[in-house]
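Table S2 (continued). Query chain:
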Amino acid sequence: MTKFHYKKVLGAVIASIMVLTGVPGVNTEAKADTDANVETAVELDFSHISGNYISDRSGNGNDAEIGGTLSVEGGALIFDGNGYLNLPVSIMDDLQDEEEFTIETTFSRSSSCGNNAWLFNFGSNPKGTGTNYLFLSPAFGGSTLRGGIKDDSNEKLLDTGMSTVADKEYTAVMVFDKGKVSLYLNGAQIGKTIDSGYSIRKDVINNGCKNNILGYLAKSCWSADQLFQGKVKSFKIMDGAESAESIQKRFSEQFSKDFESSLTIEDILGRNASADRIQFDLTLLSEVNENAVTWKSSDTSVITDDGKVLNDASEDKDVTLTAVCTSGGLKAEQNFALKVLKLDRTELDKLIARTKAVDGYEANEALKNAVSEAEKASTQTEVRNAVKALNTVLKTEQDTLYKDPFSLIDDAMFPAEKEVVVGTEEVLAELSSKILDSVKVAVSSENSDTVEISEEYGVIRVKAVKAGTSDVTVSVTADYDNFTIDYETRVKAVAKNEKIDEKSKTPSAPVNNIVTESDANVVLTGGNTYKINMSYPVKSYKLDKSEKKIIRVSKSGIVKVKKTGTVTLEVVGKNGENHEFTIYAEVPKAVKKTVTSAGSFNASELVKDAEYSKPTGYKSSNEKVAKVSENGIITVLSKGSARITLFYGKRKVNAKIKVKL
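Corresponding output:
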């Protein structure tokens, strides 16, 4: 039944009477299109369920019918994957201009929210290949935020690679303004506004809605997509397109809180141990949650605005580094108090002296050039790089200078970083027995109260005493000429419940997605399904609470990735068998890239969270701009834009590149 909109009719009648009777003080011009005049077309009341409906508290009677089963809890609507809401098409009758409206909802998705589940949409004709809709999904590919609009055939998406966190509350605002679609999350604009050129009436409602249903809450227009799972605290549609300024003004405090929680000191330390022991260059982020971040140093003679550390030669220095995050009219700041340690060239100067003392040094141009470059090092980062470079040259030239026991020591034996659980001891490296009679081995730990190191018969062990970090050094000296090479590893002692990231053990993808007992370390990629196949009957699969947020294992051994992380999966047999897998779960995400010169680069530069996952294929949307080979080598050809798709089995990652030659 068509609703009778008495408010609009009555308002028009009153306005006409005022004009005809000449009521003083009445402005007969059309009112300005301002945010102050935006009214609510529908606002759902999640305090209770009325029969099979959720009531509209706006007074417009746009109650939403329940499909399946839903429940309420603490003023929020609970979606467990078995229910959704039908939004009535009569909502459009309460818009002064149905091509201008604002949708606002506060929600949190659960960790079990299905891939590609939609939070809300206009369009109510689900198909195998959905068409004619406007939508928002907080879980595309598992966690990526995605929104957009589609007519009969062409989908236009908001350009965003931002991920949502399970069980975290967000407020999303989507503005539709005569074909233009903008999305805001907690007040910050996500991606760029789409100028689709579509009409909500002609391109969505006329061909995409049926049975007087405008759209859904928690249901997709793609019939294969799962229903949304999580909580929705509020949902309303407002008459008119709210401006960016108005939206951002309402969320300024939340923007600051989000920035503070999203950027921590650990994100910028790089190789440095802590904020009060800064020695090496920092890793400053240029964006957080897709919002630009700029940096300002209180003393650029010590730390530059781009994070380069310039160690003072004589004393430690205190510096405050300020991060400023902006998004449109929103602005948030964070200050990081840092202590930069003075320059320490002790190790490098000793190495230079030993190099100059080597027989044949004066006649060896390679060694002399390496020493000359090492002597120029003026920052701790340059000192560290110089030590590595000088050792490399020495090893290259050593055949003609001295007997070489170091040829049997592989640098890879000493990883750059290693994590050890507090209270346990692990082997760091084992020297070949062939060189033990011709070398002397000395070991040291920078913080022995945190990490202890020992050596016996060429076996080097590290023991984690308490939580913290320490640089350990293994010094190997040749008896022939007393030449010494130092091998360094940063050891992090972690609590028992923290996950160990053994980078020295490279995981591999299971063959045909089948995990067997021979797979000690495996990488599983989001969007794909894996099966655990043991040689014995399985009683249970054991994960701790935090690990269950990373992967999901069914009783039949089906494994799916929820988010990026590392877990230890224990498989217990019915007859007492036990086997552990270290699983590296990865959900690759796109990274934008701008190219300013001709040449080639690897497609791996276009993704993050894919340290071990290997693409199974590649595709370029515009081969006139950039071509991609079957090995993932991208060749830049001309100015323009292209979307490079990386396939990880069933998962696709679309990365955008801009070429400015």
